[in-house]
From TrEMBL:
The lineage of its organism: Eukaryota, Fungi, Dikarya, Ascomycota, Pezizomycotina. Keywords: Cell wall biogenesis/degradation, Disulfide bond, Metal-binding, Secreted, Signal, Vacuole, Zinc. GO terms for molecular function: amino acid binding; carboxyl- or carbamoyltransferase activity; metallocarboxypeptidase activity; zinc ion binding. This is Inactive metallocarboxypeptidase ECM14. It comes from Parathielavia hyrcaniae. The keyword Metal-binding applies. Inactive carboxypeptidase that may play a role in cell wall organization and biogenesis. InterPro entries: Asp/Orn_carbamoylTrfase (IPR006130), CARBOXYPEPT_ZN_1 (IPR057246), Peptidase_M14 (IPR000834). Residues 1-27 form the signal peptide. One of its GO terms (biological process) is proteolysis. It is found in: Secreted; Vacuole. Residues 192-511 form the Peptidase M14 domain. Belongs to the peptidase M14 family. Its cofactor is Zn(2+).
């Protein structure tokens, strides 16, 4: 039985313990049994040569007899152990002094800040610590409760049943053997959040089924040795252009392990684009003009850790100088203005980006891969970095509000267009602003003595914008605005994915129709702004 989060939140602890005792399906426990028989293999391998390999490797990792269990008892016990009596509360912040006091208090108490916007700050903590926190804050800061039971909300994000996993396995197997359309696979795949192993096998399946426009590659290894996969999709008009670099849109997700909706949204975009080619004119035209590179899980170690141990883990799993404080924040580890605005130097901080630029292995791997791509002629024209939560479209710079990007007007124009496309798609409101406003209000400057709730330097969008001159770089914070936070229920996967698909279509149309290509250098952009 899977109860809604709001129902679970009202149950007494004893009832929650009974609910959390439900057993699980484990992908690692599945035994290969599908796609058996030489006749079946022979009938499919002549269609796509990679299908035999797919059957013998990726499919067998995931497919097999389903477990009769429904949910992971290990995560359930861990959730109760870690987050029993934990809540998420919101403070409405009206001035820098209030934020400074809140930043100092959360740092002093080692609290987990979930969201920091110009209007509010969300914090997770034990109910028993609420009073202690309030004693450190001015009376003007009074909290409201957003999530009354974090353990229950976290539990609800895990896949519901073994039957659905079995259905996904069967659907993927049939698609691999060309027995069924891919629609069935997509309907099941996006019904729940998926593990890293399932995502990897799913991407290999897509590459095998769309070899003419798809290429799956590893951009490097994570700290713990996992591959960081990038999936390139693009249509070339003839064989002569196969190896010719093109303008490229990069879309990343999963920089923070607990932000599952960001990974699912990148996967949804990949799925929607690759299956719509030659079926939907807008997507077909987009892929004929641009390559799109999708990186669903830039932080595979952190993502895996959220499935196996701690659902709310944010950082990587890299060892730091403090033995008991592992992990670096990938989005504060990039090399541009890395130490800006009070770089967070405490390894125990959720925003710790390391002791030097690119100390985070995964951020370094992405930067090396991107530089190598540009040296080989690729031009990154746009970068979308998906996160959660708070429904915002943010553009450079993140490190300061004192410096405007040269093409500020274009960034604002396109950002507003992306937000409008989302609103027209679903009715959801996404605010548009400079990324600095979420971390450094314009009333604040680097010489101020007030502490910040969240560090701002070393952001991925700043690095791609300034160093690789990806002219349209955005961080998009997805659903929701706080009712569930990082623990967004899985029934939001498809609606959120559709919002991002509408935004991507708008982005493609904007890039093709605007006159921005007449300005090929940042110097030209500066001249344009002076006119």
């Amino acid at each position: 039985m899977r109860l809604p989060v709001r129902t679970l939140a009202t149950l007494p602890v004893a009832a929650l313990v009974l609910t959390f005792s439900l057993p699980t399906v484990s992908c690692a426990s599945l035994q290969p049994s599908l796609l058996e028989g030489d006749a079946r293999a022979d009938s499919s391998s002549h269609v796509f040569p990679l299908l035999k390999w797919l059957r013998d490797s990726a499919v067998e990792v995931v497919f097999g007899k389903p477990s009769t269990r429904t949910k992971a008892s290990k995560p359930a016990a861990a959730l109760q152990s870690r987050y029993r009596n934990h809540v998420v509360i919101r403070f409405n912040v009206t001035n820098p002094e209030e934020e400074g006091a809140l930043a100092q208090a959360t740092e002093q108490m080692f609290l987990d800040v979930w969201a920091s916007t110009p209007e509010y700050v969300d914090v997770r903590l034990d109910r028993a610590d609420v009073l202690a926190l309030l004693t450190l804050l001015p009376n003007s800061l009074q909290p409201s409760v957003l999530i009354p039971d974090v353990a229950a909300a976290a539990w609800a994000t895990y896949p519901a049943a073994a039957a659905e996993m079995s259905q996904l396995e069967s659907s993927m197997a049939d698609a691999a053997e060309m027995k069924t359309s891919l629609d069935g696979v997509g309907n099941i795949f996006f019904k729940d959040y998926q593990t890293l192993a399932v995502i990897t096998s799913w991407m290999r399946l897509l590459e095998a089924l769309f070899p003419s426009i798809a290429n799956l590659t590893s951009i490097g290894k994570s700290y713990e040795g996992r591959d960081v996969y990038a999936f390139r999709v693009g249509a070339r008009s003839n064989d002569d252009e196969t190896k010719k670099p093109r303008k490229t849109i990069l879309i990343t997700g999963g920089l923070h392990g607990r932000e599952w909706i960001s990974t699912s949204s990148v996967n949804y975009l990949l799925w929607s684009v690759i299956t719509a080619y030659e079926r939907e004119p807008v997507i077909t035209k987009l892929l004929e003009h641009f390559d799109i590179v999708f990186i669903p899980v830039l932080n595979p170690d952190g993502y895996e850790y959220t499935w196996q141990t701690d659902r709310l883990w944010r950082k990587s799993r890299q060892q730091t100088k403090m033995r008991f404080c592992r992990g670096l924040d990938l989005d504060h580890s990039f090399g541009y203005r890395w130490d800006a605005v009070r770089h967070q130097a405490d390894p125990c901080s959720e925003s710790y980006g390391g002791d030097q630029p690119f100390q985070a292995v995964e951020a370094s791997q992405l930067a090396k891969w991107a530089r190598n791509e540009t040296e080989n002629g690729t031009k990154f024209v746009a970068y979308l970095d998906l996160h959660s939560y708070s429904q915002q479209v943010l553009f450079p710079y993140a490190y300061t509000c004192d410096v405007d990007p040269p093409n500020l007007e274009n960034l604002e124009e396109l950002g507003l267009g992306l937000a409008k496309a989302i609103r027209m798609s679903s009715g959801e409101l996404y605010t548009v602003d400079s990324a600095c406003e979420s971390a450094v209000p314009r009333s604040y400057n680097a010489t101020d003595s007030l502490p910040r709730v969240e560090a701002a330097g070393g952001a991925a969008i700043d690095w791609f914008y300034h160093e690789l001159q990806a002219r349209y770089s955005y961080q998009i914070k997805l659903r929701d605005t706080g009712s569930y936070g990082f623990l967004l229920p899985s029934d939001n996967i498809v609606p959120t994915g559709e919002e991002m698909l509408s935004a991507l279509k708008y982005l493609g149309d904007y890039l093709q129709s605007s006159d921005s290509w007449a300005y090929d250098s940042r110097k030209d952009l500066k001249k344009r702004r002076r006119r």
